[in-house]
What we know:
Elements lengths: L1 E3 L6 H10 L2 E6 L16 H10 L3 E4 L7 H14 L11 H10 L6 H6 L6 E5 L10 H12 L3 E5 L11 E5 L2
Parallel strand pairs: 1-4, 1-5, 2-3, 2-4
Antiparallel strand pairs: 5-6
Amino acid sequence: MTTIGVYGWTPAAFIAALHDADVRQLLDVRQRRGVRGPEYAWANSARLQAALADAGIEYRHHRELAPTTELRRLQYREDARLGVGKRSRVALAPEYRERYTKEILDRVDLAPIVADLPADAASALFCVERDPEACHRSIVAERLAAELGLPVGHILPAATDGTQSESRRRPIGP
């Protein structure tokens, strides 16, 4: 299992990174499956699903793992307090992490989701934020690693300063 976000990718680089990681199933954990602005219009649900199908990658939406509008607003208020934008956030608010875990993740049985993962390839948890620590998908990944023993890593786009030209993978896990 791996995770990946939208920000920092072009459509071609995103698909290439998924192929490089042998991802054959993408698990979309967004509530609203759209991204504002033309730069990331390729990640809106219908376009993304078409691109993934062309690339031979299965798409599944797991809305039950998406944060509620109220939780997202809580994080936006914390972002505003800290003076950071959604695209520049590097961490989730502690209250957001706590409430997401209690209100969403603790109520979802992850075992059936894991049972449906392909046995011979990787799957990826997908949301918007570039850095997993700035996104609820990291909380899901941590739970998969800690409670189900699933090794989890993160696929990140190349550094914006040009010092790295390939995706970076960061493992997490037990």
